[in-house]
């Protein structure tokens, strides 16, 4: 005879939620979903913003031009400042929602690695990301952070649409 109580899984509860955002529309959806889930479960929220360190196409093309190094530094600093301001805005939004929130601003070539590292460091039991690509082909060609994280994560991953 089966025990019906044992057959029904208890609803999942999350205690520490990590959301990765960069400010684009797809990541804003992830932020709102993560805030809602953190409120629902009474969870701590970690907000991760990664500043890319890879050279852009224009910077690579300009590498041999005199003064391009200074220009590249200014662009990198500007990007850092924009991402830092975004992080502060997300943290303020989460605090306004009554959440216990921790900001993480990191520079890296691969955002997925940073997200996974911070998830492990903080003990996150859910990672929330936005979906940028609309097809599997574009995700594979461009390199999808969500795909990389979902394949390597040891915890649940929610990718918002």
UniProtKB/TrEMBL annotation:
CDD domains membership: USP-like
Pfam family, one: Usp
Lineage: superkingdom: Bacteria
Alphabetic keyword roster: Plasmid
Family annotation (InterPro entries): Rossmann-like_a/b/a_fold, Universal_stress_UspA, UspA
Spans through the membrane: none
Record domain UspA: where: 14-160
Recorded family membership: Belongs to the universal stress protein A family.
Name of the protein in its database record: Universal stress protein
Naturally occurring in which organism (per UniProt): Deinococcus psychrotolerans
């Amino acid at each position: 005879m089966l025990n019906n109580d044992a057959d029904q899984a208890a609803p999942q509860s999350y205690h520490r939620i990590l959301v990765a955002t960069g400010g684009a529309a797809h990541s804003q959806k992830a932020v709102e979903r993560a805030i809602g889930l953190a409120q629902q479960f009474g969870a701590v929220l970690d907000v991760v913003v990664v500043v890319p360190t890879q050279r852009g196409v224009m910077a690579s093309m300009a590498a041999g031009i005199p003064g391009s190094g200074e220009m590249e530094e200014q662009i990198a600093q500007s990007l850092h400042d924009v991402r830092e301001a975004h992080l502060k805005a997300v943290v303020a939004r989460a605090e306004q929602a009554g959440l216990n929130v921790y900001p993480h601003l990191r520079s890296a070539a691969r955002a997925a690695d940073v997200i996974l590292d911070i998830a492990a460091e903080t003990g996150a039991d859910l990672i929330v990301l936005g979906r940028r690509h609309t097809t599997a082909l574009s995700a594979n060609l461009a390199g999808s952070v969500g795909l990389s994280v979902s394949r390597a994560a040891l915890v649940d991953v929610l990718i918002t649409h």
